[in-house]
Design a protein that fits this description.
Two copies of one chain form a homodimer. Chain A is an alpha/beta fold. Helix content of chain A is 41%, strand content 14%. In chain A, helix 5 links the parallel strand 4 and strand 5. Chains A, B: It comes from Deinococcus deserti (strain DSM 17065 / CIP 109153 / LMG 22923 / VCD115).
Amino acid sequence: MITLEDVRGAAGRLAPHIHRTPVLSSGSLDRLLGRELLFKSEHLQKTGSFKVRGALNAALQLGGPRGLVTLSSGNHAQGVAFASRVLGVPCVVVMYEDASETKKAAVRSYGAVVVDEGVSRLNGEERVRTIAEERGFHYIHAYDDPHVMAGQGTQALEFTEQTGAPDAVLVAVGGGGMISGIATVIKTVWPETRVIGVEPEAGDDTRRSLLAGERIRLEAPPRTVADGVQTMMPGALTFPVVQKHVDEVLAVREESIVEAQRLMMRHLKQVVEPTAGLPLAPLLEGAELPQRLGLFVCGGNWLP
Amino acid sequence: MITLEDVRGAAGRLAPHIHRTPVLSSGSLDRLLGRELLFKSEHLQKTGSFKVRGALNAALQLGGPRGLVTLSSGNHAQGVAFASRVLGVPCVVVMYEDASETKKAAVRSYGAVVVDEGVSRLNGEERVRTIAEERGFHYIHAYDDPHVMAGQGTQALEFTEQTGAPDAVLVAVGGGGMISGIATVIKTVWPETRVIGVEPEAGDDTRRSLLAGERIRLEAPPRTVADGVQTMMPGALTFPVVQKHVDEVLAVREESIVEAQRLMMRHLKQVVEPTAGLPLAPLLEGAELPQRLGLFVCGGNWLP
């Protein structure tokens, strides 16, 4: 469990290094969907995603590591690479061999070394631990780490300072790092606000886990356009927070995610990645949702 | 000729109806191109483009027209349709028959009637004048109108209030409405700042006209991805302003325009239309430009 104080501490630690991102809205989109929509815009964050918050908050509490290492084919990789630059230490990112060259190039552009030869979903975790042991580098997990969870919560802390309480907030759910941080803040500051997670139907491990009362593992990595939430199981540390603070998790269809991304680009004129469409997607499927909604936009690392 | 006072008047008239758009920047893009780039962001304007400024400024000075009519297959059409809603009068937009259905739908979404049957580049102007005469509607020209020019200048007036003087500003050039308004403001407020127009090589009628000392007409409509600047000749009213206030006009290749748009989406995370890539394009061709640059982003009506 993490507390609002952990998130406050993280916010102070991060402030010199990252952006306070704006809350955006679109009158035409509000009219189209019949809601008041407030978009907390982490696609405008350093590295193009909120992930830098958690990675850097963890890195800043290590007391001078020799280097950083992580396993990620997405935004967390750039977050850790950014953190290593802040610390002035080397960084290794283990990426699956079949990850796109664009993503590998993005990670290298932050000065990290990419290790990908022979790396698969079966041996990735092991490769990271080997590098961590052999080189004495610190492994920053993408979500199952209290410092990472507290860091991700700082976007919600900013949001509570930027606007009045919405009726509900909607948050994409992967391993649970983002929603556990956000839910901790929202339920402490605005106890009346509902916290709603959103997963692709293809990868609804957290929804199933909540229904089962225990962590359920999918049989295979989910095939979804929302490539930021392709985890197979909620985290051991994040899941209890989700159980405590999240009111419900909705699952949405692939075409709703794509249409949500398109609507955000068309009306907000913002470049967002498919995964950032998740919080808006339930509105396109007629989900019963209250009037005033906060939506957390996770990232903008996508090129048309 | 228009003056700074005309633009100030327009700004007061427009203020209750439109956005004051932000000036955006990107540290990573600045590092990549070795400049300080300030993007005046009219893709975030009402209707998704600066064109609403000129159209509405003209409409607000008509003293109760029966209706508005214009000829446009682009952002000016939406600007005039928006203006008609502010005035509460009907609006007819004459569009070329081969304009995209998406653009026609966008104009209809603002409540305007689209007339397109049998409309071509040969008879479009005549069709507008017929509608104007028969129905008593006022024809708002897309650029060759002092009220339109003054309205477009208001984006530059805001820019001068939002930042310090850059070494140069870069502005896309079509018929000359935008650059004549902007140049009037910049050269009055910041006489030391260079005003540089940018055209596609495929449609460099203004550059040729400046060299010739008189208005040159292209033999055919330019074929360019920058569909907001497909005029064949500078305006009769705009050209003298361009001659007086614009330091030079550069022409850029199609691939530079596309790459500029891509860079703006990647680094600023903003959805901009191809024509909005024009001001950035000369930097990708190694043009000799000073250090601190203001770039006017004309619009964001584009969908990946």
